[in-house]
């Protein structure tokens, strides 16, 4: 049901971020992945929302070139710069 896959075993702990970043490589422009932590429970509507969001924002003729992800939570912490920000206003 999931298609082909390949397992890559790490010989040492590389941390959460490196584990996620190295866990999946897209095979083409229309490849997508979802990453969940082991203690996360998603809504039964999660896939429906994601599918509709991709249709509304990704599979459109003039999609924005900076679209890199869809999220169902409100991030308040920028992990790259270690700063808090307001996604509504962009204030850091």
Structure, described:
- The protein has 92 residues and is mainly alpha-helical.
- Helices cover 21% and strands 4% of the residues.
- The chain has helices at residues 16-21, 46-58, and strands spanning 77-78, 83-84.
- A hairpin with a 4-residue loop joins strand 1 and strand 2.
- The chain is globular.
- The N and C termini lie far apart (43 Å).
- The model has no long low-confidence stretch (mean pLDDT 78).
How is this structure best summarized?
The protein has 92 residues and is mainly alpha-helical. The chain is built from two helices and two strands; from the N terminus they run H-H-E-E.
Any chance you could write out the topology, listing elements then pairs?
Blueprint: H1 16-21, H2 46-58, E1 77-78, E2 83-84
Antiparallel strand pairs: 1-2
Helix content: 10-25%
How would you characterize the largest beta sheet? 2 strands, antiparallel
Based on DSSP secondary structure assignment, what is the total number of beta strands? Answer: 2
How large, in whole angstroms, is the Cα Rg?
Answer: 16 Å
Feature tags:
single chain, two-stranded antiparallel sheet, 2 strands, 4% strand
């Amino acid at each position: 049901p999931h298609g082909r896959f390949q397992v890559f075993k790490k010989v040492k702990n590389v941390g959460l971020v490196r584990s996620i970043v190295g866990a999946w490589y897209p095979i083409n422009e229309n490849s997508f992945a979802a990453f969940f932590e082991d203690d996360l429970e998603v809504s039964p509507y999660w896939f429906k929302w994601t599918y509709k969001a991709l249709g509304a924002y990704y599979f459109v003729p003039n999609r924005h070139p900076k679209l890199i992800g869809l999220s169902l939570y409100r991030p308040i912490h920028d992990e790259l710069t270690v700063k808090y920000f307001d996604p509504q206003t962009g204030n850091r």
